[in-house]
From TrEMBL:
Residues 4-58 form the HTH lacI-type domain. Transmembrane segments: none annotated. This is Transcriptional regulator, LacI family. Keywords: DNA-binding, Transcription, Transcription regulation. One of its GO terms (molecular function) is DNA-binding transcription factor activity. The keyword DNA-binding applies. It holds the Pfam family LacI. It comes from Hymenobacter swuensis DY53. Gene3D superfamilies: 3.40.50.2300, lambda repressor-like DNA-binding domains.
Amino acid sequence: MEVYTIKDIARELGISTSTVSRALRGSYEINPETKRLVMECAERLNYRPNPIALSLKGSASRAIGVILPQVANYFFSQAINGIEAIAYNRGYHVIIFQSQESYEREMANVQQAMSRKVDGLLMSLSSETSDVTHLQDVLDKNVPLVLFDRVSSELNVTKVVADNFGGAFAATEHLIRSGRRRIAHLTIQPWLSITQERLAGYRAALEQNGLEFDETLIRYGTFGPDEVGPMVDELMHLESPPDAFFTASDRLAVGCLQALRQRNLHIPDDVSLIGFTNLNVADLLDPPLSTVVQPAQEIGQVAAERLIDQIERKLRALPIETVQIATELIVRSSTRLEAVKL
């Protein structure tokens, strides 16, 4: 495959190589029409920046570190796809680290990334992380940092998240409108941002529909493989057991489905089940699973764009803010809708 350079784009358009270079970097000095022509030509010629050459040109490594809990988690694997697509097109390498839900390993990952002189860090916190001092140290060294999905309010950084509150509200209200009144919520560690936001959405939907929030219907888990069964047993043995389950993760959704079936509870006749997931096989489960879908790839893309903008335009980057990406409620057979008057 022929490799094209900035000189080829400049020759094709009859402009200088410096103009092409600034246009590809998104420089404010280049007018929008010229940027459009340069980007179209680059796409047509299949131009790709050479990260090694770019790193030799300056002090930057042209590499970004990505630290996340687990690549095997479908949400994070999709987020990586989004991150790598943006990084590749803008001439950056991606170095991926897994914390495996461990705070100590996350700290080691940060140290390793910093020792490799990455230009910036993208992070989603481990389920054990409540102290973010190690990340404040990164900021104190003037290394750009963007958090995504699991974030911390203690850090003054850009955060890219799903609309966890809105998604949980929509899922809970859907269950209520399908006739359910005792809705259990299975979630993960209470200090995580996604846990707090989804619990708040669940609670708000109950209260706005005239149902009392009942703490006995909430169960907090970790990431153990066999923990969902005991949760289901505890809940179903309550004096007033749940008639629906709303789970806050892929693992909990699948575990709950399996536990209910093992206990001969029929879905949705005995209990309804809805998840907050990115499972790509949710429609193939038995029954097909209703779910709130997070736009994982888009979250990864936006997070990478914001980080690279900070790296390249430190004084002109977009302001620090929380970017919220909409979720989508998909209704399937696990919450078969019935005509109910509220």
